[in-house]
Amino acid sequence: MDNRKNEQVKILHILETLDCGGIETLLLNLYRQTNRGKIQFDFLTLQNKTDFFYEKEIQKLGGRVFRYKQVPTLFLKHVFNILFTIKKYGPYDAVHVHYTNFNGFALFLARLCGVKILLSHVHLFYVEPSSKLKKLYHCFFDYLLGFKNIIRLACSQKAGLSVYKEHPFTVICNGVVLSNFSYNETVRNRVRNQLHITNEFVIVHSGRMEQEKNHLFILDIFKELLQLNPHSVLIFMGNGSLWETINRKIHDLNIQKHIKLLGFVNNTNEILQAADAFLFPSSWEALGLALIEAQAAGLPCLAADNIPREAFIINTTALSLTASAKQWAQVLYSFKEFHRKDVSSIIRDAGFDLANSANLLQNIYLNALPCSK
Fold first, then answer.
1. Using CA of residue 285, residue 347, residue 208, residue 274, what is the dihedral sign?
2. How far apart are CA 247 and CA 234, in angstroms?
3. In angstroms, rounded to a whole number, what is the distance separating the alpha carbons of residues 65 and 189?
4. Tens digit of pLDDT for each residue in 304-361?
């Protein structure tokens, strides 16, 4: 008999940041859905930043956010801060790491601290490094992920196989709160009015402004779309290291009056209601939570054909990145007369209801707990 069934399980999540990205949004969605009387989350970030996007909400939900201490070298910094956090703020029943190839080593450190439940979660598709030193480094960390007492999780089959190789793993779907994304004409009209949009054809993209999201190609596509329909608007949701580069290209193309740069937003679901199509030509994705959200909102979507097939549920067209910007624009333009409707039941049947994902993860935590003697 498990004498711990009435105790709260403490989980430490280790990840890079708590700003508004796909991994962070998934974790916060799961945290909101999880029974916090049974399970409580803390978060250790590997960035030393104040006022993360999700920090205040985590604190309201009862979680704590820990940042790294200043240590001379990057590697020692991670080692010190994982050991320091677990020892000072634990004990933790589980450590759940979301840092791909660093997962194995972080869990090795957690094991040294006496943590029994060790979870590795892959959210990114592993790209083989070109450097021999980095390959050696990754091989060592991959070896650590092979230990039998590690619970291996991934957001898709493609992502899991790229990291875990022959080791078994469980896919946790990047689910969404379907009631928040279901198509709503009233919300659409309100948000379009707030954004000063009337009859324009609105394209939206959601994603961090980083290389893999392919923002510069998005701008090329949109420039071509303006040749087909001058009354078009492009909305970007997200921020990142390429903000200035993207902004510079917008001005070089002289399309700034057609672009809305919203940065990080806390109402992605509502912005999607205001759009007419979703554009997602990522260079690589482990799954693509933003694409799932767009489909849940009933939008027609155009995405790169290298994105895992699990992410293509309904009203989504795949196109090769070798196709020209003009070809991409022509497909987008074909969506202009698309009739949207509520597709919640289809998304749910495909396994992307967040409540199911939260229940699955909660059961993994609880079932892994050792019985008290």
1. positive
2. 13
3. 37
4. 999 989 899 999 999 999 999 999 999 999 999 999 999 999 999 999 998 888 889 8
pTM given for the model: 0.81
Residue 255 contacts residue 226 (beta carbons within 8 Å): yes
Average pLDDT over residues 272-279: 98
Region of residue 354 (left: phi > 0; alpha: psi -120 to 50; beta: else): alpha
Q: Are 164 and 286 in contact (CB under 8 A)?
A: no
* Per-residue model confidence (pLDDT) at position 138: 66
* pLDDT digits 0-9 by tens, 36-49: 888 999 999 988 88
Euclidean distance between CA atoms 22 and 264, whole angstroms: 12
What's the CA gap between 169 and 151, in Å, rounded?
7
Reference 15, options 124, 108, 89; nearest CA is: 124
The pLDDT tens digits for 92-129 are: 999 999 987 789 989 999 999 999 999 999 988 776 66
Predicted confidence at residue 371, as pLDDT, reads 52
103 in helix, strand or coil?
Answer: helix
In the chain, what percentage of residues exceed pLDDT 70? 93
Joined tokens for residue 316: 């989504």
Cβ proximity of 124 and 103 under 8 Å? no
Residue with tokens 């935590």: 365
- Here the tokens at position 314 are 């309904």
Name the nearest CA neighbour of 332 among 203, 240, 214, 218.
203
Is there a contact between 295 and 347 (Cβ–Cβ < 8 Å)?
Answer: yes
Alpha-carbon distance 366 to 5, whole Å? 8
Could you tell me the sign of the dihedral formed by the alpha carbons of 54, 56, 62, 66, in that order? Answer: positive
User: Closest Cα partner for 30 from 135, 142, 155?
Assistant: 155
Question: What CA–CA distance (Å, rounded) separates 159 from 108?
Answer: 22
Burial environment of residue 131 by CB neighbours within 10 A (0 to 12, 13 to 18, 19 or more): exposed
Whether the ω angle into residue 91 lies within 30 degrees of 0, i.e. cis, is: yes
